[in-house]
Amino acid sequence: MKSIRKTAFMMLKNCAKQFEYFYFKDPDYDHFNEPVTDPKSPQGKGTLFHNGAEELFPQCDVKEMISLEREDLVKYLRKRLPDIRQINPWLDYFADFEARRFCFGLDAYGKDEVAKVFMPVAREKYCKLESKTEPARTGHVDRIDWLPNEKALCIVEYKTGKYYNLEKPWILTNLRSECGWYAAILNKIKEYDIPITWWACINPMMQQYHVEKFHTMSLKALDKQWAGVLKLIKNKGPFERNITPLCGHCKYANECLYNYGEGDFRIDR
Ligand code: SF4
Question: Domains in the chain: how many in total?
Answer without folding.
Answer: 1
